[in-house]
Amino acid sequence: MKALLIEDNREISKNIKRYLELDSWTVDIAFDGQTGLDTALREDYDIILLDGMLPMMDGFEVCRKVQEKKDTPIIMITARDELSDTITGLESGADDYLVKPFDLKELETRMFAVLRRTKKKAFKEIVYDDIVINLQKRSVRKNGKVVHIPLKEFLILEYLITNEGTAVSRADIIGYVWGGESLFESDKLDVYISNLRKKLSPDIIETIKGYGYIFTSS
Fold it and tell me: Residue 20's Cα: distance from chain center in Å?
């Protein structure tokens, strides 16, 4: 997963980047609004973390300009805590708003929550042979019959579908479903992937050896 952090405080930027990269994120940093805007429009990111108070161009203006051109999810992170500033951030197109100081674990949890909400909107229903998967209703049918998929298994399936055709790492899947990685979650992931293949199709999820998995509906 790739994030752009637009934050002029270099110590905060360093701490966020270090934390996220330990959890397999790729993080680029811009230290002013104009550079951040140029980078956001030039490159493709899964999510943008955007400070409200920035030199050269404030974060609210950056947010508006990015949303005019791209649909990249944005979380505003700022020291401002007044209601009017929260409203301004959300009206600028931000998907969430986090006030400093904040716990880095909470930040990452918010990031996955935003990704889950925004990506799911683009995938209402997926058809794979005789399987119909509806992400909004969290329902699965095979040969017209309902297939019971427990929540954690469905979240794995949801993440693979929203990244359809792209290999995703084990760490990214675990981060999306559990919010962090441990040996215990890694073992559970193997079990859940096996369960999904048995319930749906052996070929629906392909293993990328030494990396992760890929879903394709074609």
Answer: 12
